[in-house]
């Protein structure tokens, strides 16, 4: 599925985007690790999961990065060169699925955890979202590795079923719970769902490109950029919004804590 | 864009400067991580961002370092040798842009965060500075990777617009807020802006060198030294000044805290 050859510019672009994802995930995880004491204990579960998600993503992108480097050889001497497929190496797209299989369910756990719902309701939602997420990723994989558009289409359709079910749970069943959240965070929490939807939408699009006979180096480079941006948005940016929600809720629920923290006194005041 | 060949001295000089940046960023981050409890919670956000910035810079310089080593081969046997461009490798200058894309906006966040302004004013400033910073870097990249001086010049001009806007916000709009800061830190905070301006100035100069037909090994080595020194100043030194400001403000605002800390009693006295 990788192109016959890449120009120096195309190679460097993919190279830099993959590296951008590694840096984003790694240092979002570090940032959240340092900030963990700065929210109430009841919200640390959500942020701990976020740290793990970003860490898992960083690990897999390190592998994808190396896999990409090894998959091409260049005739470049210092400057511009043409990169062609290396003998005895292949770019392993499967890493992405291993990553998603672990991280996508955890992203939903983050969202539910930061809501701090009643225990019964929380486990009810998780028992719906997590298995659906695992199923969605697992059903996508056989199609991804198949060169047969028929097989690809079938598994695309199958994985859309749990995908739509997740959207149903998030946008219909969850709405009532969101209305019970503090005013200061209701908007952010509602937007988080759209962030997930928007960034996840990149995956089915990239998935379908080969079926639409969109191919060649530019399409492939575009797909790698799309995956990279989507992973940064859906994991790192998403985690930072979850942290902000956790912090605002911590201040709102414990004025004494807000007073101690006082990170920008005005901030605490505004959000209480 | 890298020179045909480097002397042993030129190669070692770049090698040592790149390594100096890695050490500076990594251990500034470690130092600040250890010092985080030694300032009031309200200033820890600024220092946490500083830690992340230095960490991101260290990561990218590790990559730049490896990219540089791989880009040259030498005939040296033990002693002096000539380093020529290696086949199948190219020096990836793009890393710098990936680094700046993440760190430059965060450097501005550090500065605003340590001011501990009213929340409304703070977010107003950040909504102006951060997008402008991202735009400035993103617009520079297409010119950097282009060998066409025309294209290079156009994108240089485009990225100068957000650059000048940032200067306007920092040196005009921010001045009023600086006057409200404690006397002990007003000077340092004002100087931070000049530190940014001074170190950032290196980038457009290095950017323009190829257009001025300044080329050859010496110019390239000088450019690498310039980038390295600028990155140490704009990130590590900058972060240490921010930490000093945060510590002085912490002592000034909480005498009990200053009393407890009291390492450098005289320092605490001087600043209360």
From TrEMBL, chains A, B:
<keyword id="KW-0675">Receptor</keyword>
<dbReference type="GO" id="GO:0016020">
    <property type="term" value="C:membrane"/>
</dbReference>
<keyword id="KW-0600">Photoreceptor protein</keyword>
<dbReference type="InterPro" id="IPR001425">
    <property type="entry name" value="Arc/bac/fun_rhodopsins"/>
</dbReference>
<feature type="transmembrane region" description="Helical">
    <location>
        <begin position="224"/>
        <end position="243"/>
    </location>
</feature>
<keyword id="KW-0716">Sensory transduction</keyword>
<dbReference type="GO" id="GO:0009881">
    <property type="term" value="F:photoreceptor activity"/>
</dbReference>
<feature type="transmembrane region" description="Helical">
    <location>
        <begin position="43"/>
        <end position="62"/>
    </location>
</feature>
<comment type="similarity">
    <text>Belongs to the archaeal/bacterial/fungal opsin family.</text>
</comment>
<feature type="transmembrane region" description="Helical">
    <location>
        <begin position="125"/>
        <end position="142"/>
    </location>
</feature>
<dbReference type="InterPro" id="IPR018229">
    <property type="entry name" value="Rhodopsin_retinal_BS"/>
</dbReference>
<feature type="transmembrane region" description="Helical">
    <location>
        <begin position="14"/>
        <end position="36"/>
    </location>
</feature>
<feature type="transmembrane region" description="Helical">
    <location>
        <begin position="100"/>
        <end position="118"/>
    </location>
</feature>
<feature type="transmembrane region" description="Helical">
    <location>
        <begin position="154"/>
        <end position="174"/>
    </location>
</feature>
<keyword id="KW-0472">Membrane</keyword>
<dbReference type="GO" id="GO:0007602">
    <property type="term" value="P:phototransduction"/>
</dbReference>
<dbReference type="Pfam" id="PF01036">
    <property type="entry name" value="Bac_rhodopsin"/>
</dbReference>
<feature type="transmembrane region" description="Helical">
    <location>
        <begin position="194"/>
        <end position="212"/>
    </location>
</feature>
<keyword id="KW-0812">Transmembrane</keyword>
<keyword id="KW-0681">Retinal protein</keyword>
<dbReference type="GO" id="GO:0005216">
    <property type="term" value="F:monoatomic ion channel activity"/>
</dbReference>
<keyword id="KW-1133">Transmembrane helix</keyword>
<keyword id="KW-0157">Chromophore</keyword>
<protein>
    <submittedName>
        <fullName>Bacteriorhodopsin</fullName>
    </submittedName>
</protein>
């Amino acid at each position: 599925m990788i192109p016959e050859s890449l120009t120096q510019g195309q190679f460097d672009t993919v190279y830099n985007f993959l590296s951008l994802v590694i840096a984003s995930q790694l240092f979002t995880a570090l940032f959240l690790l340092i900030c963990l004491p700065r929210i109430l204990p009841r919200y640390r579960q959500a942020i701990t999961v976020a740290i793990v998600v970003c860490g898992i993503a960083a690990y897999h992108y390190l592998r994808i990065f190396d896999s990409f480097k090894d998959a091409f050889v260049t005739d470049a001497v210092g400057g511009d060169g043409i990169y062609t497929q290396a003998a005895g190496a292949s770019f392993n797209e499967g890493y992405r699925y291993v990553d998603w299989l672990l991280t996508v369910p955890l992203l939903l756990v983050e969202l539910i955890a930061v809501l701090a719902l009643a225990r019964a309701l929380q486990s009810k939602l998780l028992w719906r979202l997590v298995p659906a997420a695992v199923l969605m990723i697992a059903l996508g994989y056989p199609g991804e590795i198949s060169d047969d558009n028929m097989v690809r289409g079938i598994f695309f359709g199958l994985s859309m079923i749990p995908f739509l079910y997740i959207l149903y749970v998030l946008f219909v069943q969850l709405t009532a719970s969101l209305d019970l959240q503090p005013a200061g965070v209701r908007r952010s929490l509602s937007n988080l769902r759209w962030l997930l939807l928007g960034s996840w939408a990149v995956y089915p699009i990239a998935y379908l490109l080969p079926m639409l006979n969109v191919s060649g180096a530019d399409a492939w480079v575009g797909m790698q950029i799309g995956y990279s941006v989507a992973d940064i948005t859906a994991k790192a940016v998403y985690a930072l919004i979850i942290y902000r929600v956790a912090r605002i809720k911590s201040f709102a629920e414990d004025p004494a804590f807000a007073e101690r923290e006082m990170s920008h006194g005005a901030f605490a005041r505004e959000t209480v």
